[in-house]
Amino acid sequence: MPAKKQLIGSADEVEAAFYDAMSRADLDGMMALWAEDEEIVCIHPGAARLIGHAAIRSSWESIFERGSVNIRPVQLHATHNMLTAVHSVIEEFQRTADGKQDVHILATNVYVKTPHGWRITMHHTSVASGKAPLDMFKASVLH
Amino acid sequence: MPAKKQLIGSADEVEAAFYDAMSRADLDGMMALWAEDEEIVCIHPGAARLIGHAAIRSSWESIFERGSVNIRPVQLHATHNMLTAVHSVIEEFQRTADGKQDVHILATNVYVKTPHGWRITMHHTSVASGKAPLDMFKASVLH
User: Fold this and answer.
1) Does B137 contact A51 at a Cβ distance shorter than 8 Å?
2) Do A130 and B77 touch (CB under 8 A)?
3) B-chain residues within 8 Å CB-CB of A54?
């Protein structure tokens, strides 16, 4: 599915397109999902803050040179209004060879409604110690 | 200044009140700044995700038992619309005795406009290696 079509969709669809672009190391497809605003922010796990298209594009270019990134965003918690969607997800990635993970990655993804559709304005990831916890809230409440 | 008065202010004022409450270890004052929504999210540096008032309040209670937290949010980059403000800041904290810091803390603070005024819906912090960089963009552009 071309990125252009996805841009007119919901924040959820832009999020799916974002992780899909990572899995295909599709730099142009990924960058087209960001808002046309020089105040966009991207923070990779454990890394310094990147601001604006040039710095963010350059970082993903370096990452994709090492290959694609296979992440499944799980345990979504969201708050949203007509103009903004704030998503908190756990980024589930490929387990190591011994099947153990002593850290997990948390992401805050913020989407804003623009004249071109929903776009990413913030991607902030961080490393948390320990395995990803079970989502007790989601396990007991369907919504 | 009582927290109640600050709640009717702007997102910037709520952010100032948030860090002020930390500096006074004022648990009730801090919690009053959060949105009345069980989907609120707080991620402390290097820690797992906390969702909802009870878990978030409990974490700050534990932190404040060890004393107040003196942080100055600097190098603000923001995107906002009528209903939401997304702030990215560097959390400048007290330097160690030898004056060296080999990490810095980044925070994403998201504020939403509610019937009671602007409130916090997300506080996501992460540890970044190295000293906080100079903000080249801010250094060259006044806005």
Assistant:
1) yes
2) no
3) none
**Hey, what domains does chain A have and what are their CATH numbers?**
3-140 (3.10.450.50)
- Predicted TM-score (pTM) of this structure: 0.88
DSSP B123-136: EEEEEEESSPPP-H
Dihedral through CA A100, CA B127, CA A111, CA A72, nearest 10? -10
pLDDT in tens, B71-121: 999 999 999 999 999 999 999 986 555 656 688 999 999 999 999 899 999
A142 in helix, strand or coil?
A: coil
Strand order in the sheet with B41-43: B49-51, B41-43, B117-129, B103-114, B84-93, B71-80
Q: What is the ipTM metric for this complex?
A: 0.87
Q: How many CB atoms neighbour CB A64 within 10 A?
A: 17
Do the Cβ atoms of B84 and A88 come within 8 Å? no
Residue B52, beta-bridge partner list: none
Contact: B86, A48; criterion CB under 8 Å: no
Q: Between chains, do B48 and A128 touch, taking CB under 8 Å as contact?
A: yes
In A27-102, beta strands by DSSP E: 41-43, 49-51, 71-80, 84-93
A79 min Cα distance to partner chain B (Å): 7
Query: Is B37 in contact with A79 (CB distance < 8 Å)?
Result: yes
Q: Whats the size of chain A, residue-wise?
A: 143
Residues of A in contact with B43 (CB under 8 A): 88, 106, 108, 126, 128
